[in-house]
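Handout, section B. The chain below has 96 residues.
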Amino acid sequence: MPHATAGLAILELGAGSDHDALATLDRLLPRDDRWRHRHGSAGHGADHVLPLLLSPSLTVPVIGGELALGTWQSIALLDPNADNPERTVLLSFLAG
């Protein structure tokens, strides 16, 4: 994903897990004025640190035409940057 404030994660979504993940990111990366990167909305510097915790890319095997994820796993795009609501996701497929 070609964005400086976004990351991808494989995690359970629903049953509160997604809210727990966002709450954890809020605790780790508070949206306040402690950040040196200060343009944009309040706490925007935290958005630029997010890729240290969540990579902008990931690899998932495809087996029999299906993503090889566990029963409760989903791919989530996380980007708290309210200053830019549009995102581009690039997909690459390698045949093996």
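Note. The chain has one domain: 7-78. Compare this with the example in section A.
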